[in-house]
Amino acid sequence: MTRTTSKPDKHAAESKAKTASRGKKPGRKPTEDHVFYQLPLYYDIVFGSDVLAEVEFYKRLFKEFSTGKVRRVLEPACGSGHYMVLLGKAGFHVTGYDLSPSMVEYTRARIERAGLSKTVQVLEADMRNATLPGKFDVAINQINSLAYLKEDEEIVGHFKATADALVDGGLYIVELTLRCADFEKEHKVDESWAVERDGVRVAATWKPVRYDFEKKLRIVELTMVVDDHGKHSEYFETHELRLWTHEDIKRLTHAGGFDIIASFDCKFNPIPDGTCITGDTHEFPYFVLRKR
Ligand SMILES: C[S@@+](CC[C@H](N)C(=O)[O-])C[C@H]1O[C@@H](n2cnc3c(N)ncnc32)[C@H](O)[C@@H]1O
Do 234 and 113 fall within a single domain? Predict the structure, then answer.
């Protein structure tokens, strides 16, 4: 999960609909069980905005960096499946997987509604130990979902398993949020926005609260307020995410069998080789990894 400032297209709906900051409510304790990901409709309303431009960017990367024709795409942590359906409509065979059974169920229904069940499939699996059917030409992983893997061993294990599921020279494109030199910079980001769809209004606040340098974690609080056809509910939870440094990304991808062959900023422009990428210099960078 990433912040929602200045992200092109992907968070356009949210940017247009920003509300006043809601933030943490005094006296309330956040839960840590990520209820948000068990509520796929609300997730999709508030985070599932138009990603068409990003999918076009992926297609450009496939052409530019893949050594063979790209036909089969894998999407770990696929969430509500909006990328999968767009890629499926573009003619790719797509397999996505997610830890949350309700996300999987929602995505499966979405695939069926789109008439893509023959070429697009979704599975329930964990990035830490997924065993995947068949071989893929590329894999994609967006919006810092990889940061739900916190320990070096599980991150390397995920890269190794994904490399095994790719053809020789296959690509893994990952979008990550890197740490800022100074948490105070990130601390100022307290994003609140609301989106309404078909009588359901979801307001969310995504608020980084601190860095834990020792455990390499970025602690974020998420508040979500829902009005579902007049029925109100409210959720408040903590997300502990891996606090990425560029050095760690290089080290862990390499240990997992990949080389970083290119990086891009959130506007899809190349980042020159040799740049030290941080959260201060680049929001939401993409790393193009090639299986060695
Ligand atoms: C921020 S959402 C991103 C979903 C989708 N990629 C998107 O861009 O909308 C993160 C997703 O990661 C999933 N997730 C978290 N930990 C996971 C794990 N260990 N294995 C598989 N999926 C996981 C959550 O259930 C959630 O759907």
Answer: no
